[in-house]
Amino acid sequence: MGILALAVIWAGCDSTEYRIKKYPDRFAALSAEEQTAVENKTLDIGQSPDVVYFIMGEPDKKKRQFKDGKDKEVWIYTRIYTQSEGTHLAGYERRVYYDAKYKVFRVYHVPRYVHTYSEHQEIFSEIEFEEGVVSAITEYES
Questions:
Q1: Which of 38, 57, 70, 128 gives the lowest tally of CB atoms within 10 Å of its CB?
Q2: How distant, in Å, are the alpha carbons of 28, 38, 97 from that of 18?
Q3: Cα distance between residue 63 and residue 130, in whole Å
Q4: Please, what's the b/e burial string for 124-138 (b: 16 or more CB within 10 A of its CB; e: otherwise)?
Q5: Residues near 133 by Cβ (< 8 Å), separated by ≥ 6?
Q6: What contacts 24+ positions apart, CB below 8 Å, involve 114-119?
Q7: Distance CA 52, CA 59 (A)
Q8: pLDDT for the residue 70
Q9: What is the C-alpha to C-alpha distance for residues 126 and 62, in angstroms, rounded to an integer?
Q10: How many angstroms separate the CA atoms of 34 and 63, rounded?
Q11: DSSP letters along 42-74, please?
């Protein structure tokens, strides 16, 4: 039950609604059109970094580029996922039992298998800003 509650709290900490409640003055400073875009979670060219922040949250990485004579900033959003790599032999487990017929302890070994997982990170979206507004949105499929 405690883990479920923690998961709900954690999920609520990074939502659009949470960010609006956390920064009400920043949200109120947006135009009515921008506030509607945030509430509908509609990202588009020409929007401000604040709108992107309220919709997408804090980027995992930011990078600056000087390209074509213009200063650009790119916000990179990633997702981390776990992938099963199957079951592998980890070794042998020693078991002891008492043989009542011969009145001795006997030892045997049982193979021990473990599930193996690997963690992967992939970029799912890049938001490019030019002159303080969104100039390009790139979304990647997994």
A1: 70
A2: 14, 12, 58
A3: 12
A4: ebbbbbeeeebbeee
A5: 45, 46, 47, 48
A6: 114/87, 114/88, 114/90, 115/84, 115/86, 115/87, 116/84, 116/85, 116/86, 116/87, 116/88, 117/82, 117/83, 117/84, 117/85, 118/82, 118/83, 118/85, 119/80, 119/81, 119/82, 119/83
A7: 9
A8: 84
A9: 10
A10: 24
A11: ---TT--HHHHHHHH-S-SEEEEEEETTEEEEE
Which residue ranges in the chain fall short of pLDDT 70? Answer: 1-13, 142
Going by the DSSP 8-state scheme, the letter that residue 15 receives in this structure is S
Alpha helices in the chain (DSSP H): 2-12, 16-22, 24-28, 32-40, 49-56
